[in-house]
Amino acid sequence: MTSSTQSTAVSATATANDLAARAAASDLFKPTQLGPVQLANRIVMAPLTRSRAKEDDIPGDLAAEYYVQRASAGLIIAEATQISQQGKGYVFTPGIYSQPQVDAWKKITAAVHGAGGKIFLQLWHVGRISHPSIQADGALPVAPSAIKPEGQAYTTDGFVPLVTPRALATDEMPGIVKQYRTAAENAKAAGFDGVEIHAANGYLLDQFLRDKTNQRTDVYGGSIENRARLLMEVTAAVVAVWGGDRVGVRISPVSTFGDIADSNPQALFTYVVGQLNNFGLVYLHVIEGDTGGSRTPPVNFDPQILRRLFKGHYMANNGYDLSMALDVRDAKTVDLVCFGRPFISNPDLVERLRTVAPLATPDPATMYGGGAGGYIDYPALKDS
Ligand code: PHB
User: Fold this and answer.
1) Could you confirm whether 90 is annotated as catalytic?
2) CATH code of the domain in which 51 resides
3) CB–CB of 309/277 below 8 Å?
4) pTM (2 decimals)?
5) Mean pLDDT over residues 108-117, rounded?
6) Could you tell me which of 339, 304, 303 has the C-alpha nearest to residue 321?
7) Whose alpha carbon is nearest atom 2 of ligand 1?
């Protein structure tokens, strides 16, 4: 070893010791209440699309084992799950709109509970991020406005360009809300601890919120209040099923994921969060920055404004590591810290973070689709 690599190694050890001491003192690894649900710690497994569902959008047979392996997360938010066939945007994602789907999810929630875990379901309608080949009878995907997104759909023929969607008629909107209500009831029947309304990442609810994708002239478009109307109606319907203390909402105020943007995200999301406060929601899940990308994209936006405004728990997501998670818990600027990709390759992520153990890197080739490989065969540290 040269003296410079030696001193790098010494300082790495010092950093690890420092992190271990901070982890031992932090409440990140201590139990906390999420409304009526007790969590073993403040680390949340993010909803992660793994594209391993079976025919008819039934969750795959390995999903129970996959989630059980990760049940030491304080909370698991199960993968984005379509609330209807219309809400489906990718092949091999699961649904929550039929009895066989509910029955399959029941086995998964029971297994996670048996392992001491807690699990919410993420309710998903993709809106325009779909393709006729995935829709019933080859129908066009629906959206607030007939504006074609840039990007590709993942279909049985592989990746194909997205299409110009059909704008929903005003009198179709109660039907959309009903899809959410039924899915919320199904999630309850399936034994979940609660649900998360997916209003992020350029999917249907986000398409209504933001003015790049919503150019309607009815009561669901135009003003911020109008653009937020669908999310508020959906939230009211889901809260009527679950009670606010078992419902969270996910937003991504400045993300461009899904070819989306807004001319004034600060004003839009300040209004949205103020209105969401009327429902007594248990958490607000915020993707800080660009989804899976920069935490500080060019758009000027401070998510802490939302955090101070919101009355429930603030869950933060996007590129967190142990050091950042400890920082935000020391500063008390975040209540729950969400990890995505690290949970794919580290089923025992909580224990690895707590002990400052090395993390395995996920293999991109097996993230979406396939079988057990890259899904349930990442070992826990104690088994490797
Ligand atoms: C995806 O399937 O790629 C996906 C799903 C939900 C998200 C983001 C990405 O919020």
Assistant:
1) no
2) 3.20.20.70
3) yes
4) 0.96
5) 98
6) 339
7) 49
